[in-house]
Amino acid sequence: TEPERVASLIVADIAPVGYGHSQTPLIHAMRGLDLTGLGGRTEADARLAGTVEDPATRAFLLQSLDLRADPPRWRLNLDALEAQMDQIIGWPGTAGRYEGPALFLSGGASDYVRPEHRETIRALFPAARMAKIPGAGHWLHAEKPREFGAAVSAFLGAVSPVAPSSGG
Predict the structure, then answer these.
(1) Out of 35, 91, 102, 106, which residue is the most buried by the measure of CB atoms under 10 Å away?
(2) Cα 41–Cα 144–Cα 88 angle in degrees, nearest 5
(3) Share of the chain above pLDDT 90, in %
(4) Which helix (H) or strand (E) holds 31?
């Protein structure tokens, strides 16, 4: 709605479409994790494994666990996330368009950005470039942080103006 305020845009593994799934089961798993007497992240991971099978998903979720707090607690507002899940997974639509440089970066093992979404992406972001990180799922920044950082740096380096050197 205000494209002039955005110099460039990176979209990480999501398309401008509504999704039919929910992350509510993960919120329930986080709420259900017994945080009493946790000795560390490894123990939290072992406990969470009972409800969240995928190790990469558990690792991503556990980044939001504050083990230094007494007692340990989630940094996320789980109540707000659950209450707003329809908004989070939905797409309200927009009359705007962003014509500046945009990178839609997807996980090679993710199904969030599908071939049928490309037309919608191009309509809203006509200068969009699309790239995939092989072997990454939806949380590509957590699963492949080096590759994600390299892709972001390369994109920003290509679209950001280079400051003139001062000579010498």
Answers:
(1) 106
(2) 80
(3) 72
(4) helix 24-32
